[in-house]
Design a protein that fits this description.
single chain, mainly alpha, Rossmann fold, 14 helices, 7% strand, binds tryptophan
Length: 335
């Protein structure tokens, strides 16, 4: 355990996760947990930065995220799965980091600008952008430095944040004349971008996603709405899989070489209609996802999830306290 490099990554509790999360993030974590001392956390404080007034589903959302991770193979015996708000050491470290972070570093953060824009578009006026939201990148830095992480597995959209974390770690080290904090590096995930059913990026708020926990019936229904080759209008029109916007992409992810060839031929020769192609795809996806979904239902029924979250958070606290104590010493606070 000790000489393994440390990774930290988090996800906001947005509710039930979709296949984009599974293929793009969780599958990667499941690999990484074998090689790294891994900390995966549910970022409930981060959720509050924008949804401070929508907390009614918070508890269920936290459980849903944990259930989705677990059923996809994130293993609490290999990785430390924890809830951000159950590791208060992060908040303490955040205070110290916030003191040394220049305000204009935070204001420069591009992701934050995007967030601000989204909030604005949603008619929330700018004065509703909270102090906490501006502190987002510093809180994220605290998440990472709490475990003195070496790497942060994230998608490209989060790289700017991790860069800022490096800057803050370096500044801390300069100010207190130490090499206490490791400068964390982003570990870019090669995300096979899974499109939503309408051809846009898959996302809960776009209503174009398939959840990990959807039933086989719902999956089939949703697949029926997936975009195909828009020029193939009638059943006996010959289609072109490379113009098939969504369904063929899914085949490439879920199908075997042979299956892909079969649907390709069927499409190009008009021997298989889109309806049949979709039905086959839904069957294939459902059989691939069946063990994951069964595991999720079993986990839901045995009510272990809260225990797993608490256990993991306790474990995380131990390491976090160690790192925090060291930082407090380096800063030369009264002890
Ligand atoms: N900002 C990340 C997101 O929105 C979530 C996150 C919070 C995170 N803290 C983190 C990711 C620390 C990696 C490390 O997806």
């Amino acid at each position: 355990m000790e000489d393994k490099k440390i990774i930290v990554s988090g996800m906001r509790p947005t509710g039930k996760l979709h296949l984009g999360h599974y293929l793009g993030v969780i599958k990667n974590w499941v690999e990484l947990q074998n090689q790294f001392d891994s900390y995966f956390f549910i970022a409930d404080w981060h959720a509050l930065t924008t949804k401070y007034n929508q907390t009614e589903n918070m508890i269920q959302n936290v459980r849903d995220v944990a259930l989705d991770w677990l059923c996809c193979g994130v293993d609490p015996n290999k990785a430390t799965i924890y809830l951000q708000s159950l590791v208060p050491q992060t908040a303490q470290l955040h205070i110290y980091l916030s003191m040394i972070t220049p305000q204009n570093w935070v204001e420069r953060d591009p992701t934050l600008k995007d967030l601000a824009k989204i909030m604005k578009d949603k008619q929330e006026n700018m004065s509703n952008l909270s102090y906490g939201l501006f502190g987002y990148p510093v809180l994220m830095t605290a998440d990472i430095l709490t475990f003195n992480a070496d790497f942060v597995p994230v998608g490209i959209d989060q790289v700017a944040h991790v860069e800022l974390s490096r800057d803050i770690a370096r500044r801390f080290n300069n100010i207190y004349k130490t090499d206490y904090f490791t400068e964390p590096q982003p570990k870019l995930t090669q995300i096979p971008l899974l499109k939503g059913l309408d051809g846009n990026k898959m996302g809960k708020s776009f209503n174009n996603d398939i959840k990990i926990s959807d039933t086989a019936e719902i999956t089939e229904k949703k697949i029926k709405t997936g975009v195909t080759d828009r020029n193939r209008i009638r059943r006996d029109d010959k289609g072109n899989p490379s113009n098939c916007e969504v369904i063929f992409d899914y085949w490439k992810i879920f199908g075997s070489e042979e299956e892909i060839k079969t649907v390709c031929d069927g499409c190009q020769n008009a021997t298989m209609g889109c309806a049949e192609c979709k039905k086959r795809l839904a069957d294939k996806m459902n059989s691939t996802l069946a063990p994951i979904r069964e595991k999720r239902i079993a986990l839901e029924n045995n009510l272990e999830v809260d225990e797993i979250i608490h256990e993991g958070s306790k474990r995380a606290q131990i390491k976090a306290q160690e790192v925090l104590d060291g930082a407090i010493e380096v800063i030369k606070m009264y002890k």
